[in-house]
Amino acid sequence: MYNEPQVEVLKAQTYTRETVKRFLKRYVATNKMIGNDNDEYAIVLLTDVAIWHLDFTASAFIVNTEIDALSEDRLRAYADFDMQSLGDTLNTNLKLQNVDYYYQAIVIYGRSSVPTLPTNDVMKNMKQRNNFILDVIVLHDGFKNTNAPV
């Protein structure tokens, strides 16, 4: 049976999107299983700019519901990205009030190029927080001469 190339591409994109969703759900479930009940999670999507998709929550149900709601458009490939927008978005949304909680922002980076994190005050501030971690999930096609680190 012959499948048109566009159909095969759409199938591959759907599988990738569903794989990302399963991975994110497993990540949160694993943290909950090992007793991290005081962890809160946020989701940051990197389209052409950083988008604060989900505010911090300790509810695995809410995180899973938001993961299921990720649209094809949000998980598609974007050619360009304003890395400074990541720092600005995190700076705007990081209001870590409760020192008993451990906050994790999950950033989904779906590019074939190697990211360079900004070195501004926002990133320095994040490194100094002892109850915050920036988890970056990188989805890529593999290294090529055009995207390999220098």
Automatic annotation (TrEMBL):
Keyword Cytoplasm attributed: yes
Major location category of this protein: nucleus
Signal peptide: none
Single GO cellular component term: nuclear body
GO biological process: double-strand break repair; mitotic G2 DNA damage checkpoint signaling; positive regulation of DNA repair
Coiled coil, from the record: none
Subcellular location: Nucleus
Top-level lineage group: Eukaryota
Keywords for this protein: Cytoplasm, DNA damage, DNA repair, Nucleus
Protein name: Uncharacterized protein
Source organism: Mucor lusitanicus CBS 277.49
